Amino acid sequence: MDEHSLREEIKRLIRDYYELRFADAKREDVPVSGKVFDSEELSAIVDAALDGHWTEGKYSLIFEQKLKEFIGVSHAMVVNSGSSANLLAFMTLCSYQLGERRIQKGDEVITVAAGFPTTINPIIQAGCIPVFCDINLGTYDINIVHLNKAISRKTKAIMLAHTLGNPFNVDAVVDVCKKHGLWLIEDNCDGLGSTYAEKLTGTFGDISTISFYPAHHITLAEGGAVCTNNPKLSKIARSIRDWGRDCYCKTGRDNTCGKRFGHRLGDLPEGYDHKYIYSELGYNLKNTDINIAIGIPQLAKLPGFIEKRKENFKALHDRFAKWEKYFILPKATEQADPSWFGFPLTLTERFPTKRAEFLRFLAEKKIATRLLFGGNITKQPYFKAYGIPYRVAESLANTDIVMNNAFWIGVSPLTGAAEIEKVISAFEEYLKENL
Questions:
Q1: Maximum C-alpha span of the chain
Q2: Are 210 and 79 in contact (CB under 8 A)?
């Protein structure tokens, strides 16, 4: 049996294994999120492993090409997580190659406190000052009035996520950036497939990020990506991702430039091997071909995943309409068509109990919930422990409401009609018993 025939036999066995192990798997819980896959993803993993290359290679090139075509950007590079993507995007804008526009220690960066830590942590790690604006309840996007008031002579950038897949007010945010000459870092980790004014998110910022953690719209097991239409930013980002090296050879290749031993950079001796010349403060943030191979069939399934998320969101919203006096229901930002990551709910004053009591009840019913990430990030233990400096633009009143009273349930493709009925039944039971 030759190699090709043997690979085909392995794929057949993988299909059989998938049918035996996963196809009819039943679950009693209602998850908030999770990976959706079939034998194609398992075959992709094994195929990449059988190549024996394992680190970044041909599958990376294929996936990056398909990803940038889907989103509509000129440059996309895969990294090892969405958090690394945020770090890489921010550090790219700190490069000395950007001259006076570079972000430097002591500069201010506007964001929101009601978000995930790794949207904010790169700002802190670079020695910059996060400036927190409040959010709007229901949409959970940045308060634009507060945003305008947050600008100071030290402001260099705005770094915002599309919360739970709902785009922020892109027009208003972009206008502020243009007016004041600010960078826009668009955290699209929750929003892959969302649109604003009929254009996909991840295309509005100077640089944007995606997460491929299993909870997100598609998965590479672990992974993320940085996207941009700016070739200079792309070159800087790829250098930082690849240890900070000046060399741009693909993994496993040498002397692409034709003068590997013909450079003189920094204070190094002439002819110093270009593979070991570092022009940026870098890291190794690459992913592996074994992980990235999963993304190729996942990306092909993405349009279906997006539609299922929208369908589930609408079904829940329709059913929850009768409970509007107990919950602030989610709503899309004007001009937005979200690929919702979750279905957020904020308890109103008329809700009969505390949030924690209700969430314990839902957990007993095997209905998974999550809070809106860090709530108010300034209240998190590490903020006080490390004495992190920050500034608040106006107040964080709505952020505190979210911290105390908001949570979300799932709309992922793992949720079907039966799961939605289970959710509605549990909510009805609790309200009936406690009102």
A1: 79
A2: no
Give domain status of residue 31, yes or no: no
Query: Do 122 and 153 fall within a single domain?
Result: yes
pTM here is 0.96
CATH of the domain at 121: 3.40.640.10
Q: Assess whether 253 and 242 both reside in one domain.
A: no
**Distant-in-sequence contacts of 204-207, Cβ < 8 A, 24+ apart:** 204/170, 204/174, 206/93, 206/230, 206/233, 207/89, 207/92, 207/93, 207/183, 207/233, 207/237
SS (H, E, C) 266-328: CCCCCCCCHHHCECCCCCECCCEHHHHHHHHHHHHHHHHHHHHHHHHHHHHHHHHHHHCCCEE
Listed residues 259, 291, 323: the one ending a domain: 291
| CB contact burial 200-217 (16+ within 10 A = b; e otherwise) | bbbbbbbbbbbbbbbbbb
Q: Please, which residues bridge with residue 109 across strands?
A: 130, 157
287 and 333 inside one domain: no
Q: pLDDT tens digits, residue range 80-89?
A: 999 999 999 9
Put the strands of the sheet holding 391-392 in their side by side order: 75-79, 224-228, 207-211, 183-187, 155-161, 108-112, 129-133, 391-392
* pLDDT category of residue 389 using cuts at 50, 70 and 90: very high
**Whether 75 is catalytic:** no
At CA 320, angle to CA 315 and CA 321, rounded to 5? 105
Q: Which of 75, 146, 162, 216 does the annotation list as catalytic?
A: 216
pLDDT surpassing 80 at residue 251 = no
Per DSSP, the chain holds a count of helices (H) and strands (E) of 13, 14
Q: How many domains does the structure of the chain reveal?
A: 3
Strands 207-211 and 183-187: parallel
CA atoms within 13 A on the CB side of 58: 7
Number of neighbouring beta carbons within 10 Å of residue 107 = 19
Interatomic CA distance for residues 1 and 138, integer angstroms: 61
Residue 61 CA to residue 287 CA, distance in Å, equals 12
Beta-carbon count within 10 A of 396 CB = 24
Structure tokens at 95: 């490069």
Whether 400 shows a pLDDT value over 80: the answer reads yes
> Which amino acid, residue 287?
N
State how far the Cα of 143 lies from the Cα of 168, in Å rounded to an integer: 9
Distance CA 270, CA 261 (A): 8
In this structure, the answer to whether residues 94 and 235 fall within a common structural domain is yes
Q: In the chain, what is the straight-line distance between the N-terminal and C-terminal CA atoms, in Å?
A: 70
